[in-house]
Every structure is written in structure tokens, then in C-alpha cells.
Design brief:
The protein contains eleven helices and two strands. Helix 7 packs antiparallel against helix 8. It is mainly α. The chain has a two-stranded antiparallel sheet with strand order 1-2. It has two domains: 94 residues, Arc Repressor Mutant, subunit A; 142 residues, GntR ligand-binding domain-like (Four Helix Bundle (Hemerythrin (Met), subunit A)), CATH 1.20.120.530.
Length: 257
């Protein structure tokens, strides 16, 4: 258990670091992470009752207050529900808040399947295509130049983490340039997908893929700078679709398909 816990904290810290957040290392966040990953992984299947508080307290060696706060957080994310005289039940996946950064991170920690990545790509297309189109009409000169610069810096990345951090900066800037506060807010889903997906698919070690990815982002930046919403949509769709295809291909290769 100690080795697994250390790995889980490291993974969570890495995602937080790339996203520019301060990693949480308190007892509450550790218990929350371990329970969340266990539920997503199916260690506690949908519809089953979690172990009693006494068992969980012994397992995590924390106070009752820390455990209860972690359980409350999971309940707020739609993953569990506590009922008197019954216990705490794991809710069906359709009830989970998949827009929540933690829930998404737990899916990536356990290794998402291709269908999960496909669904994530589809919702990204629904969000980011229109975000890019709006950005082409509303961006400031500074934002347009920032996108061009960011696309160029993608080509200078030497590690998957550096690439993911720059890629995240690019997509954040597109959302901000849309001048739509709802679009910028919902881009948190996109941010988590980008910061976690680098573990599955990064073009950094493939020169051809890297070159194509940099050019594709440059195409988005150029369309936004030129005020061309149709081109911005098409370019963004290509980036998302190619990224999904690369991830799906590597997952299939890893499984020996």
C-alpha cells in the first residue's frame, strides 16, 4: 500500500504542476485521491457499499474528521451517497460529475479506455471549435501574438511535460480570447484533458508527429489572427482529431492489437 500511495501522490502532483496549481499534500487530499482512484478503477463497483468507517479509518490511519470530509467531497462529485442504516453506496457512473477535475484525473490515473478518450474528444470538439471561432472575431492583438508565440514554442519542447504545459497555455489563451466567460470556465475540462493525456500521447519523441502538431497549432493561431472563424474551427477540429487518433493508436499498440 505504501508504494501505491506514493505513486498516486506523484501522479496527482505532476498533473497539478503542469496545470500551474499547487499540489495538495494534506491528509484529506491523500484519502480523497486514493478512494477516488479506487472507485473509478472498480475496486468498489457501482452499487456496492463502501467498507465501514471503522475499516476505512484503520486502512488510512487518519482521524474520523479527515475521512468524513473526504467522503463528503466524493458525495459532492456525485460518486457516492450515504444513507442511514444502509451505508455509503457507490453511485452509477452516469451520476458522476465528469466535468470535475479530480474525477477526470482519476480516470487518467487508472488508464482510460479508447471510448472514454473518444467521448472526451467529442466534448472538446463541441467546446473548442466554437471557442476558436469566437476568438478569431474577438481576440486582442496581444492575444493573437501570444498564440503565434505559443505555437512556435511548442516546437521547442523537449519533454512531454514541457509540451503539455505549452499546449495547455495555447488552449487557455484561445478560451480567453473568445471573450466568453462561460467558454473560459468550461475550458477547465480541456485543461485537465491536456495535462493528463500527455501520459498517453505526446508527439515529442516522434519528429514527424511533432512537426505536424506544431504546424497544426500554428494554423489555428494564424486563422484567429486573420479573423477567419471557419478556418479556426477546421484547424481546431484537426488538432483534436489527430490527437485522439494518436492516443488511440498508442493504446492499441500497448495492448498488442
Amino acid at each position: 500500500m505504501a508504494t501505491r500511495n506514493a505513486r498516486e501522490r506523484t501522479s496527482g502532483d505532476l498533473i497539478a504542476s503542469i496545470a500551474g496549481r499547487v499540489p495538495m499534500r494534506n491528509l484529506h487530499s491523500q484519502v480523497l485521491w486514493q478512494l477516488g482512484v479506487a472507485i473509478v478503477a472498480g475496486d468498489y463497483p457501482e452499487g456496492t457499499i463502501l467498507p465501514s468507517d471503522t475499516e476505512l479509518l484503520q486502512r488510512f490511519a487518519v482521524s474520523r474528521t479527515v475521512l468524513r470530509e473526504a467522503l463528503k467531497t466524493l458525495a459532492a462529485k456525485g460518486m457516492i451517497e450515504a444513507r442511514a442504516r444502509i451505508g455509503t453506496r457507490v453511485l452509477p457512473r452516469r451520476r458522476w460529475n465528469l466535468f470535475d477535475a479530480d474525477v477526470l484525473a482519476w480516470h487518467f490515473e487508472t488508464g482510460p479506455d479508447v471510448e472514454f478518450l473518444r467521448s472526451l474528444s467529442e466534448i472538446r470538439i463541441g467546446i473548442e471549435l466554437e471557442s476558436a471561432a469566437l476568438a478569431s472575431l474577438r481576440r486582442t492583438d496581444e492575444q493573437a501574438e501570444a498564440l503565434i508565440d505559443c505555437a512556435n514554442r511548442l516546437g521547442e519542447a523537449t519533454t512531454p511535460e514541457q509540451f503539455a504545459r505549452t499546449d495547455l497555455e495555447f488552449h487557455r489563451t484561445v478560451a480567453e480570447a473568445s471573450a466568453n466567460p462561460f467558454m473560459a470556465s468550461i475550458s477547465a475540462l480541456v485543461e485537465l484533458a491536456l495535462t493528463a493525456a500527455f501520459t498517453i500521447s505526446s508527439p515529442v519523441e516522434d519528429d514527424d508527429a511533432m512537426d505536424a502538431t506544431v504546424k497544426a497549432h500554428g494554423r489555428i493561431a494564424a486563422a484567429i489572427k486573420a479573423g477567419n472563424p471557419d478556418e479556426a474551427r477546421d484547424a481546431m477540429r484537426a488538432v483534436i482529431s489527430v490527437g485522439f487518433g494518436r492516443a488511440a493508436g498508442r493504446m492499441a499498440q500497448a495492448k498488442g492489437y
